[in-house]
Amino acid sequence: MELCYQLPVxxxxxxxxxxxxxxxxxxxxxxxSSLFGAPDPRxxxxxxxxxxxxxxxxxxxxxxxxxxxxxxxxxxxxVRVRSQVGFEPxxxxxxxxxGVDFRTLHSRAESAGSIPARRIRRLxxxxxxxxxxxxxxxxxxxxxxxxxxxxxxxxAKCMLEKVGTWNFDIFLFDRLTNGNSLVFLTFHLLxxxxxxxLFQLDMVKVRQFLVLVQEDYRNQNPYHNAVHAADVTQAxxxxxxxPKLAQSLTSFDILLGLLAAATHDLDHPGVNxxxxxxxxxxxxxxxxxxxxxxxxxxxxxVGLLRETDLFSHLPAEDSLGIERQLGSLILATxxxxxxEYLSRFRTHLDENSLCLGHSxxxxxxxxxxxxxxxxxxxxxxxxxxxQWSEKVTEEFFHQGDIxxxxxxxxxxxxxxxxxxxASVQIGFMTYVVExxxxxxxxxxxxxxxxxxxxxxxxxxxxxxxxxxxxxxxSEEGESEPTRATEEPSSRALSQGSQES
Length: 500
Hints:
This protein is an all-alpha fold. The chain is about 60% helix and about 0% strand.
């Protein structure tokens, strides 16, 4: 770890060792090189790292840090063995008239310099990962030079002190961590619960796993991206702290819950299951049109666990058990099985038969907690909930535009001409969110549950006020409620399958 971070600083009169030259990095013999402090990030990104010969040059320190990030990423992500789980994530859909590259489905037209600049910012922030790892090991921070990148680190740490509050602003936290909210937040929670020490996890492997998980989320997606995964993980943490769960869950349950939250939408293509089925996508064939996305998320997570050997020190039976139970949690987020889980949950509550002393019942409560965390956006404060609503609707409408372009049947809620953000959200809150969180409040009647239901009611009222002609004329006013009551479950499930 230290060797990766501390790049050599050599005097000018000493030959450069061959092993340094083989690092794919440019070597600057002077901090006055035109590339040092270059105002154009595209110019800087072309270097892929460098070695500075002037340790007092703070700009050169940035260059060394960039080089360390590149070397670190090469060590961990050079080989991505995906054949173990039986799929290739870069394949395209196989519809005879539609070849959609899901890697660029939601990409926007950007200037030539914007992508390299974003990559540089993400690489810079990796320095914080290395710093936090040393601090957790009790190693002193020996660097006396001021690194501008650390200015945000303190603000992010202050936010993490309140990571258990329901109004936690994940968007702000993502900005403060330069797009690394999922890595920072999940690592912090694993350490806060004492899981790294308890399960004797290698911190380098933990960091490697989380970085690969974050990278496997497609951040071109407006909604299903790493920030959504971080938001769900934070919500899961809030539920794990609820008295009824906190008093009964084991450390193993907590570990599973956090990992499932962080990976529950891994490598989401930004379209829903019906889209994959009707375009004959290979994933739909692979999983026989059953929980296609959820199976893909689970298998992707298993692939990364095996690739990083995160649990290789555990007995093989225990490691396989983790993978199976992780799959059980992620598969529970399939919204097409919403009524099944909700009915079972309601029956347990009616009969008062949910005994958290039994491992199977604890696991079921984790499944319900993850389902709540996955669709909790309408229960957040309006400032946060509104942003999520806009993002998920943007993703819906983009899918609808693709379907129109290729003469496919437009999926429900994906037609921007027939739906608005307000109508989509009102239907989703009414038929999916409210029934689930009403039962959750029965299970865990706490201040948090009442707060979530309160936000849900206020947010629904806010969207209702925005709906055009909400109080409209008789004929116009009747058409929308009539359409809303026709097969409400199918409408709800359609949106839920995309949000899960």
